[in-house]
Amino acid sequence: MNFFKEIKSGREGFTLIEMLVVVGIIGVLASLVLVGLGPSRTASRDVKRISNVNQLRNLLEVYYLKNSKYPDSLSEATLLGYNKVVGTEKTEQERYGYTGGGSSYTIGVNTEGDQKGSVTTGEAGIVKCETDYCVSSD
C-alpha cells in the first residue's frame, strides 16, 4: 500500500514547457504532412482532368452517332453534358481545348503536373498535341 502512496505523491500533470514542446512537435509534423500532400493533390486533379477528356470523347462519339458529324465547337456539345463533365468554373474550362467538326476532332487538356503525353483512341492511333494530354478521332 505504501508503494501506491509514493507514486501518487509525486508530481501530477505536465509543466507548461513540456506542453509547449509537445505542441511544437505536433505542429512541425503536421506541416511536413501537408507539404507532402501537395503533389498528391495536383496528381489527383490531373487524373480527374484526363478522365474528363475520356468522358468528353465518349460524348463526342454519341454526338457523332446522332448527327453524322462531330460538333464544330464544344458549345454544341453542351447539350450532351459538357458542363457536367468539365464543370462550370471558367478557370477549369480554360484548361480544355477542342478543334473539330465534320469527321474529326482533337480534344486536349493542360495538366498541372507531369502527366504529359498522348493516348491511343480506338482506331485513331497515337495522337500528339501541344497540350499535355489529348485524344483525337483521326
UniProtKB/TrEMBL annotation:
<keyword id="KW-0472">Membrane</keyword>
<dbReference type="GO" id="GO:0016020">
    <property type="term" value="C:membrane"/>
</dbReference>
<keyword id="KW-1133">Transmembrane helix</keyword>
<keyword id="KW-0812">Transmembrane</keyword>
<dbReference type="GO" id="GO:0015628">
    <property type="term" value="P:protein secretion by the type II secretion system"/>
</dbReference>
<dbReference type="InterPro" id="IPR012902">
    <property type="entry name" value="N_methyl_site"/>
</dbReference>
<dbReference type="Pfam" id="PF07963">
    <property type="entry name" value="N_methyl"/>
</dbReference>
<dbReference type="InterPro" id="IPR045584">
    <property type="entry name" value="Pilin-like"/>
</dbReference>
<dbReference type="GO" id="GO:0015627">
    <property type="term" value="C:type II protein secretion system complex"/>
</dbReference>
<protein>
    <recommendedName>
        <fullName>Type II secretion system protein GspG C-terminal domain-containing protein</fullName>
    </recommendedName>
</protein>
<dbReference type="InterPro" id="IPR000983">
    <property type="entry name" value="Bac_GSPG_pilin"/>
</dbReference>
<keyword id="KW-0488">Methylation</keyword>
<feature type="transmembrane region" description="Helical">
    <location>
        <begin position="20"/>
        <end position="39"/>
    </location>
</feature>
